[in-house]
Amino acid sequence: MKSKSDQEYVVGVMTMDVEGKDSERFLDCATKAVGTFDLALKDSLGVRVVTLSFEGPHLTPTAGAYAPLDFLHVGMTEKIERGVHFLLIITEVDLSTTSFGSTLALPSQLTNVGIISTKRLNPTFWGNSEDRPLTIRRLETLLLHTFSRLLNLSYSKHPQNIMYGFVDVEDLAGMVRFTDRQRQQMRKALPREAHERTSRRSRWRFILVTLVRDWKSIAIAIIRANPFRLLARLPTMITAALSTIVFLFFTPDMWDVASTVELYQLVLFSIIAVAAATAALYRAFAFGSILSRSRMLAESTVVTSAATILSLLFTMSLLFAIFMGFIYAGTVTIFPRKLMETWPTVDPAIRTIDHIKLSIFVSALGVLAGSLGGRADSDGLIRGVLFVDEEA
Asked: Which residues cross the membrane (predicted)?
């Protein structure tokens, strides 16, 4: 078995000619840019670059542009099937985004897939004369920039650095070099970020070993997703949950159940409710099966699935805590004490423990009901938070 220092890492660059309107020019630019990209990575990291092609799929544009997440979904599967550690997809069509009108590149460090569009790299897009060498040079820079983001390389403030946080397409041609420190950071990050061990047998053992080995990558992905950001993308879920909570809060039967059921039973029910809500959202927003078409289980898909599940779990737990705090505050501040004494049919619900149990019970039901409504929220927005680092 090869040691970590002897491990050969492979970067795949896949062209996806979706519309085929000017295939010859697109493929010529991509081939020449990949050649320079290959030389740059050999000099800096010693990795191997392979050129791949993909004929489909027949994607449907939305509002005049294509969704990068559609390409990302394809890339996640193709990366495993082609046996590469990283995959960069080059397409000739414009890519829409959730934050801007369009994007040139979209790196997903969690999946080790980057999507790059050449649509706006050619000066002809901006009404100028065609300049193929300039287009190729911009694409070379974008390939290096996107791959470096997959290695979690930070941005630079220097306009001539490959990792410059560019704003305009014109900036790309001037971004020409890495620093020695950046090269060292990339060499150090490469074995950590290249998740692509595979297994067909002992899948549960493989999953457990992967979770232990890659816990840092999973934790970084969870922090990047941020439960507060995810909640902001779930308006339908929150609305459905609040509607349920308001209704249940003013129902005498809820007060009866909450005051008579044991606290440990409510805690157990809440755990089950949060877990069920997480499972419902995972089925709605995750990217399909973690097995490839050849039934191989890959390390990167285990990391991706674990980060997705835990991000959603923390989000549901946060929502439960927020609802519980609001319900308890409403109970002790605005709910009439006399009504607490007479409304429940079993015992007066005036003790602090009664209020806590009611808050737990109603919050759990609210989260569970909200998860069903949350499936109607935009899967593109949620997946964008879970899987995408930023839009260039």
From this structure: 230-251, 263-285, 306-335
